Amino acid sequence: MADNRVALVLIDVLDAFFAPGRPAYYPDSVKALDPLRALLTKAREQERLIVHAVERHRPGLADFEHKKIPVHCEIGDDQSPYVAGFEPLDTPNEIEVPKRRYSAFYATDLDLLLREQGVETLLVAGVKTNVCVRATIQDAFAGGYEILLAKEATNSNRPHLAEASLEDIDRYFGSVVSVEQALERL
């Protein structure tokens, strides 16, 4: 890896959110796919650390998240596959971080992994802006990382909450940037 201080963190680029007919699908999700693809392509070209943070719930076991939202993304179900082309490559710098909560940091080894690689800046993208993206960014901020959120590469089924989250993220936790600016940082 050339400059390991910047890592790309993709949040929940899974069929559950992007494939029509899935319970978590919403039509605007697909608007983020081209910007997400551009970021992933550039990160791969630059040999950046790429973290695929994805929902992975255990089938048949209690999960506190299910008290608030329907069962989703159970290991092996039809919602869990990656959107085609977003599967992690079999290289050391592309990893999957399974998560059972909204934040990619909560109860995972993400922080340890990033610190061991010398990462200081996280370029975050994915769904949903007001839930998993925001929770991950808040925890990253608490951990002392510089955070960039690529505006066009995130959205939500609740646009008013996504807009409020973008404002809060830019004001309190990091910087909301254009995809072009994000590509420059990669």
UniProtKB/TrEMBL annotation:
Keywords, comma-separated and alphabetical: Hydrolase
InterPro entries reported for this sequence: Isochorismatase-like_dom, Isochorismatase-like_hydrls, Isochorismatase-like_sf
Domain Isochorismatase-like: 7-181
Pfam families given in the database record: Isochorismatase (PF00857)
Keyword Manganese: no
UniProt-recorded name of the protein: Nicotinamidase-related amidase
Organism: Kibdelosporangium banguiense
Lineage of the organism: Bacteria, Bacillati, Actinomycetota, Actinomycetes, Pseudonocardiales
